[in-house]
């Protein structure tokens, strides 16, 4: 049987930091090159991975934008910057007078699959923080609001909406797995959640598999960063609400933000960049955190929390505000 021709992928960057590409380059088991081979995908152009630059790169992009060359997958990293005044001229394609906004729209409307890589491209992300003077939006969302650059009803050539591989940055495997599903012709709307995020990572909560779950069960809380307890009550952890598999799928071979003693800030969600409070603070009303777990009624959570707090083992109470675990017993510790 004749082998199918590879799917061609164009990657553009606009209002972002490039961190999603940096993360992707760190893919392991398999690495990025092998992952693309397995997926049957070849890169038409990528700003960090391709040799073509300047006018050579522009001619590839223009040929796709004008329909002289076909494209299967268009990926955007970074937000679409619509400013000033909706012109998009804050970011022009190098060496031309075209706004990146118009280039992105042209190539996206010719693609079989459109992939927003990172929370900037999906929802606006960090680039939209503060006053958002640059008018940063996502491909199909402006924060939580559906629409974005391409509009709520946008469908690419495959019939799918924009695929939002959100995260700041993305885990490399979130991208490589999605691209393998696309390459195998095995990705459809049932593989996405209500914000069009692939379920390969958005089918989990960050809370799942967190090494602090024992502390969470007994509401034994950390008071400061580097304490070993659960960071939900005092340090702003949103792991019980955040959709991602960070504590199941290791980052860089091991670990996660939580393992690094930093609370989950829900970076895969729209508007995570503007939580309305410090990232390491838990907003509360009458001592009860506002952002309670999404998978149980609030009244139950409050009732169970006070019961489990009353039954917290001494070991957990002590370790929750310590920078190390004492499971081996005090006598085993190095003095
Ligand atoms: S999503 Fe985060 S890491 Fe990716 S480009 Fe935007 S700011 Fe950078
Ligand atoms: S620190 Fe966050 S993710 Fe970990 S157990 Fe507590 S609430 Fe869950």
Salient structural properties:
single chain; 335 residues; alpha/beta; five-stranded parallel beta sheet; two-stranded antiparallel sheet; 10 helices; 11 strands; elongated; binds iron/sulfur cluster
Biggest sheet record: 5 strands, parallel
Q: Give the overall shape, derived from the CA principal axes.
A: elongated
The Rg value, from CA coordinates, equals 22 Å
Share in β-strands: 5-15%
| Order of strands across the main sheet | 2-1-3-5-9
Topology order in helix (H) and strand (E) letters: EHHEHEEHEHEEEEHHHEEHH
Could you tell me the mean pLDDT? 94
Task: Summarize the amount of helix as a percent range.
Answer: 10-25%
Number of helix segments? 10
Ligands (ions, cofactors included):
iron/sulfur cluster
Low-confidence stretches: none
CA(first)-CA(last) distance: 68 Å
**What class do helices, strands and sheet pairing give?**
alpha/beta
The total count of strands amounts to: 11
């Amino acid at each position: 049987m004749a082998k199918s021709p590879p799917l061609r992928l164009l990657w553009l960057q606009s209002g972002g930091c490039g961190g999603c590409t940096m993360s992707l380059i760190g893919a392991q088991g398999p690495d990025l090159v092998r992952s693309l081979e397995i997926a049957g995908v070849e890169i038409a152009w990528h700003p960090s991975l391709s040799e073509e630059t300047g006018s050579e790169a522009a001619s590839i992009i223009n040929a796709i934008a004008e329909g002289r060359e076909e494209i299967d997958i268009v990926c955007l990293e970074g937000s679409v910057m619509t400013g000033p005044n909706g012109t998009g001229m804050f970011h022009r394609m190098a060496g031309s007078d075209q706004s990146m906004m118009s280039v992105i729209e042209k190539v996206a409307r010719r693609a079989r699959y459109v992939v927003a890589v990172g929370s900037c491209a999906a929802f606006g992300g960090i680039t939209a923080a503060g006053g958002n003077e640059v008018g940063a939006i996502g491909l199909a969302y402006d924060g939580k609001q559906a629409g974005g650059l391409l509009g709520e009803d946008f469908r690419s050539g495959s019939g799918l909406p924009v695929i939002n591989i959100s995260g700041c940055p993305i885990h490399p495997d979130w991208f490589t797995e999605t691209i393998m599903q696309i390459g195998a012709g095995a990705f459809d709307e049932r593989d996405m959640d209500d914000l069009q995020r692939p379920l390969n990572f958005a089918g989990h909560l960050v809370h799942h598999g967190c090494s602090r779950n024992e502390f969470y069960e007994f509401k034994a809380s950390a008071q400061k960063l580097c304490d070993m307890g659960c960071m939900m009550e005092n340090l702003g952890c949103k792991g019980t609400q955040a959709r991602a598999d960070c504590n199941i799928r290791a980052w860089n071979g091991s670990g996660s933000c939580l393992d690094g003693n930093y609370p989950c800030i829900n970076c895969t969600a729209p508007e995570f960049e503007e939580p309305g409070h410090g990232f390491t603070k838990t907003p509360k009303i009458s001592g009860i955190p506002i952002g309670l777990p999404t998978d149980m009624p609030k009244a139950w959570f409050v009732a169970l929390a006070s019961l489990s707090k009353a039954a917290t083992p001494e070991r957990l109470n002590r370790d929750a505000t310590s920078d190390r675990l004492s499971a081996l017993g005090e006598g085993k510790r190095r003095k």
